[in-house]
Amino acid sequence: MKKLSQERFACEADAIKALSKLSPQFKYHQINESKVTPAKSNKKDSLNEISYQISATVCQDESKINTELLSAGRFIIATNVLDSQELSDDSMLREYKAQQSCERGFGFLKDPLFFADSIFLKSPERIESMGMIMGLCLLVYTLAQRQIRNALKESKSTIKNQLGKATNSPTLRWIFQCFHCIHLITLNQEEHISNWNKDRDFILRLLPDDCLRYYQLAT
After folding, report:
1. Within a domain: 77
2. How far is the C-alpha of 152 from the C-alpha of 95, rounded, in Å?
3. CA 178 to CA 203: how far, in whole Å?
4. Confidence label for 76 from pLDDT (cuts 50, 70 and 90)
5. CA-to-CA distance for 170 and 167, rounded, in angstroms?
């Protein structure tokens, strides 16, 4: 609608026709009021030319919205906390939606980067053990990712993402990829870290000192 109101038309009929083509594209809104006004050209060589512009207001189409609400599906959220003072309906819905962030976290375990699909276990005991290890990995993954993001926001800093654009909310998966080419080299009986640069040094210093020791940056 904003783009249409900036266009100029040769006649009033063209403006109304353009509006009539636009209105069917609204899913849950409708044209409330419309007005066509003449406007003079701003160009010096065509000061006498008159064009037309259209302005309109848009409002919600309550009938379409209500029809959609009536046909919408329903789902049940159940809890054993029956005291509404302890857990209100709104709080229960928020808690339910918050589970999605945890469930999304397990998605990283399915990533080919972590080779989880190459593991085959037969006995229930080993499956339970692997489940515990995967849960622990997810905990460390989430904590490290949160640590980096919080440190970037507190220092008002950014790092480059996969597209080379600055971001203050990188995924830990991307951080892992940034460190793929790091190697420990032994030369003349001395250990050295290869392919180290200032960007990787900056990222690593966002984490606790324990992480620095792995790269010989702290004692």
Report:
1. no
2. 27
3. 9
4. confident
5. 6
- CB contact set of 156 (below 8 Å; sequence gap of 6+): none
For residue 86, the SS3 value is coil
**Could you tell me if residue 59 is inside a domain?**
yes
For the chain, the distance separating the N- and C-terminal CA atoms, rounded to the nearest angstrom, is: 63
Query: The tokens of 215 are what?
Result: 């790269």
Name the domain count of the chain. 1
CB neighbour burial string for 136-175, b if at least 16 within 10 angstroms, e if fewer:
ebbeebeebbeebbeebeeeeeebeeeeeeeebebbbeeb
> Domain range for residue 44?
2-71
Give CA 107 to chain center in angstroms.
15
pTM of the model: 0.52
**Residue 22 located in a structural domain:** yes
Residue 217 lies in a domain: no
